[in-house]
Each structure stands twice: as structure tokens, then as C-alpha cells.
Amino acid sequence: MNPTHENRRAVLDMAVPTACGFNPSRVTRIRAAALVALLLMPAIARDGSAAEGKLPDNAPPLSYSAKTPFAWSNPLPFEYTEGQTAPRREVRDPCILREGDRYYLVFTLWPFANREEKRMELPNNGSSPGIALYSSPDLKSWRFEQWLVKSSELPENCPYKHRFWAPEIHQIGGKFYLIFTADNWLKKEYNPAGSWGTAGYAFVGVADKITGPYEHITYIQGAACDTSLFGDADGKTYAVIPRYNIDIQEIDLTGLPRGEVKWVGQPRRVITAENTDIGIAAKPDYLEGPWLEKINGKYYLFYAGIHRDPNHPDWLGYHTGVAVADRVMGPYEKDSRGRIFEGGHLAVFDGPEGDKWFSYRGEARNQARGLLCADPFTLDAEGRVQTVATTVGPRTHTTSNPSAAADTKATDAFLVGADVSWVPQQEAEGRRFSIGGVEDGLLAILKEHGFNAIRLRLFVDPTAPGGYSAKGYCGLESTLAMAERVKAAGMSFLLDFHYSDTWADPAHQVKPAAWRDLDFAALTNRVHDYTRDTLAAFARRGLTPAIVQVGNEISAGLLWPDGKPDDFDQLAALLRAGIRGVREGAPSAQVMLHLALGGQNEKSRWFLDNALRRGVEFDLIGQSYYPRWHGTLEDLKANLTDLANRYRQGIVVVEYSAPDGPQINAIVRSLPAGKGRGSFIWEPTHPGHGRLFDRTGAALPALQDYRRTDPAIEQ
Predict the structure, then answer these.
(1) For burial by CB atoms within 10 Å, which of 204, 621, 636, 685 has the most?
(2) What is the CATH T-level fold of the domain 415-714, as seen in this structure?
């Protein structure tokens, strides 16, 4: 918090979709190029207006937790009639994607056919009727949303009028991309290459919402059936292309509004169908259905293979394998098992507890051939994918993936905390603290009343021009000295990096003076190095914090102008750099992202979703709550409850002021799945803010309210 400003609210303003129809007079072909442009992001309004950014869903929140196992049954209870003469359950290539509160599904609809002259008189010329979108709040009850592409509504010469195999939706850089395989069965010349082709052609379209409309649908020359997409955290996009083996190549989709898609660089062969490299004689006929997912900093490339060699009866069927790499272009190392489960053409999505699941088509040996299935998977200590037995019937799952389970290290106890960063300055000015007329140290008084954690803010160089303090308060040496006192008091310690020489908050995120002339690459490196080296200084004195904030009240970004949310790719890069510094300098510490959106749910979700989609890995969600800016206590409870249901991270109200402490602690304690980790009152020694002590340092009656109303303190 900055006590000197009032304009703290940053309002999210989502992008407005544009409309553009298909132009059947031309088929756009890809031109080779080496240009990659950042995709546009929603803008941030900073005028304090009340405009709200809207998310594309309004369903009730998912509410499953690690403490309440999620129950489901494979195959999933799914049936469809769209484009069919009778209800059907058969699917191919199912792709489930979670967006907000709902799961969305696209797949290859029946019939799963190639072009045949004898079928041309059938509805849709014997082809799949298009791409339909379905949704569910719980993976168990599904409904038809709308057609994304419908054959009967397309002109006769449309190059993507038939087939509609392997549709996938990928969210990349704030946009949604629909990629699929299609062709035209009416005349050869209507096809992109002027021929029928063997398995169709790859097309891609773009939308602002998962529900569409998907516009500028464009042919991807040189791609193949089942081509998939992957957006990396650095803003680059890659195509994963199955050509018997599997290749990866960078692709530029920013020209789609102009009907252009461009390859960047050269393709790289990353996986071969041969299994001799892992000592397995059985090999598939070919590889297909790739899906690339980044998990815990590594790249997991899943792929499917059909095995028909009777010399290897144990391998007959449709199987999924996986390979892992440290870099997106490899080298990839195949899992030595060769397969991780029976079934295939999977898509990875965030499951009920935020852990990783995959959707796939079931197979014969688990009695679900061609039906929609979904299962969770985990990573073992060596980073290998572990799956549950893929069988039919009722199932339950309690998350056990360390990357998905709510983190508890260093904060098992509920935190009753206080930010007392002003105290050294107050004491230097003569302030002494007392209770009932008896003088005592501040930390001792707080601890006696049940406080067990202290938060300290840190400025880069508070003595710099325009900095916080010419005397160096809240600088490194001052904060180290205060951390010594916290340790001696036996209390937990949270370190709050402002990444500024002075206050950082929603209205002020000023770069440190020494960093202002750095280009973005150098700035990112400086954030990493400064964070790592600062924490190493604490560690050398045995003062490693339990929690580290990477930025203070970063709802509107940090290190302006580079880290504003209207370029979330850059903001995410800065956050990742800081987090890497924490992991290296204080491996035992939990990382917190601190927002100033205590009662603003949609804005909180927008920020967190954008961070998570760009590989920002953190352990705790911090929120500021001041009624003047963040609404009522009911607003706070509603927001935190939804965040607890939606995300794996624990939640801390890391700033608030009197007199709401006991009520806030009660709200945080009540959050689902034990996600509420605690709270920190902001500057309790300041009579204008925390108001637990008066101007002389004497404890006020409000301090006793904690003892009377907080069950942890009473214990």
C-alpha cells in the first residue's frame, strides 16, 4: 500500500472482436518468413473508471478439491445428435479445454470417413458435418453450444467443406485458435493443392472467445493431418506436425487477419516412429495426434501410434507415448516404456483441482473403443508421466501431483501476520511500544496476542533520487536488521520485493533509478539477478524468508512501462525472472503473486489466468483488501472462495487495515479445501492505517479483539 495516493484501481478492458467472412475466391498459402510478432492483448484502463473486463463464461464455479475426491465414470456420459440421424456416442480425436468455470469439447464427428464416390449422395457427401462445440461444468453433464464450422453453411467451392478431422482449440497470447484438417470433395480444383489429397489439409482460424466466431480460416501449406499448435511462454508459436514421424517448426499466426500464415526457420524432426532408440522392437504404423504441453519447466510431447504387427501381440492396438525435452525444439528423449496407456489422440487440460488431465478416445481392450474418456496423470519424482489404469467404470481421484496440490511448505500454520516495515523509522524517532502502561518490544506484544508472522517491504535503493528514504529505511541493510529481530522473536517472515526505489502499487510502479536505461532483455536479467542475490544475502545470515512476494500489488503490472498488463507477455517474462531468482536464492520459500483486487473476482481471474497461461509458476495468491477500493467483506469472501475453488494455490489476504482483522481471518479460515493460509494487517503501529497502537506506541483495545475472536490466538 502507498498511503499517499488514492487512484489505486486498474480496470481491465477486454478486446473487442472483429467480423470477417470467408473469401472463397482465393486460398491463402503460407509464405516463408523469419518474422514473429507478439499477439495483441487486452488493454488496461487506468482512469479509475468502473468498466469491467468480462470473461466468456458465467457458469457456477467448479468446486472440487483435493480433500473431496472427484468422482466420474469412463467412458464419460456423452451423446450427441448434431448432424446425425440418430443419437451417437462415438468420437474421434477429442479435445477438452478448460476455460474459466467450464470445460469445452471439440472432436471429429461421425462419420469418420474419407472421400468415396459411392457416399457422395449421402448427407454432407458422406462427410463429418462440421465442427461442433460442447461444454460442461463438471465433465459429466454436456450440452451443445454451437457450430464453429458447419459444412451446410459453407459455399460449394470452400476448400474446407468436408472431413473436419482432429479439431483442436488452443489459447495462445490471449486469442483462441481453431486448427483442423479438412478438404473439398466436390471438385479437385476447390482444394488448396488442386487434388483430393490423402488425408485432407490443415486449416487454422482465430477468435477472441473460445465460442468464436472463428475468422480468417486459412490453409497452412506444408502442414499435415493432425497438426497441433503450442504457444510458448516467450510469445512464440510452434506447429507440431505428424508426417509419419513428428516434426516441430515455429509458425507465425499474426498475419491471419490478412489471410497469411508464415513458417519461421526450418522444421526439426523430434520423434521417430522407430522404437529401436529405446530398445523396443514393436513399432507403430505411423505416429499421429501429437500434443505438446509444458509442465514444471519441461516440454512433454505426447503422441499416438497404431500397432498392427501380429509379431508383437502385446502391442496390438492404439497407444500413447511421450517424450520429454528441456527446450521446445528438443532434443526429446522418449519415455523408455514406449507407451504410457492404451488409447490415444489425447489433449491435455486443467482438471477439477487444477492438476493435469487428458481427454482421449477409449480403445477395445478397455471396452470403450471410440468413446470419450478422460483421466488424470501425475509426474513422479523423476518427472516421468504416471497414469491411472485406463478402464471403464466409476472412478475417483484425489490429486497427488506435487505441481497441482495446494502447497503447504513453510506455511502449515495459519498466518496471523503484520507488516511492520515502518517500525525502525518510528523507533528512531523515539516511538516506544507498550501495553497496559508496560513498555515492551513490538514483536513481543504482537506475539503475545497470537501474531506469528511479519511482513517486510524492500526497496531497491531507497536513497536514490526520488527514493523512499535518504536514510535507507526499507533498503537491504535496514531490512536485514529487522529480519534478525523477527527471527529472534521466533516468528515467520515474508519478504515483499517492490522492484522500485519507492512505493509500488496499482498507481505507481516506477523502475529503480539504476534500471531505467536497461533494454527489456537486460531488465529481465536484472530482475532475476537482483532477486537471487538479495535472497542469498538473507540466506547467508540464516534469514531465509518463508514467503517471497514477486512484486507489490501488481494488478496493473510492475516496472512500468515494460511490465504493464497490456503486454502480458512482457509482464509474465519479468515475473518468471523474479520467480527464478527466488527458486535459486531461497529454494525453500513460497512464491506469492500479490494483487490489489480483494473484492474483484473477474479482474483477479483475468490476471491469474493470463499469468498461468504464460508459465508463471507460483505458490500463493496474495490479495489486498481495503473497503474503499475493494468492496464489502461479502465481496471479499465471494472472490476468495471462487479463487480457492478455481486455483491450486493457497490464499493470503496480505494487506488490510483495522477494524476488519478478525472478520477477515474468519473469511480466510473458511475457504474451501484449506486454501486459506492467513492474513497480514498493514502497519498496525500507524494510527491512520492498522490502528492497533496509538501515536505514542500504546496498544489500543482493537488488539484484544484478535484474542477474543481468533480461534488460533485463543489456543
Answers:
(1) 621
(2) TIM Barrel (3.20.20)
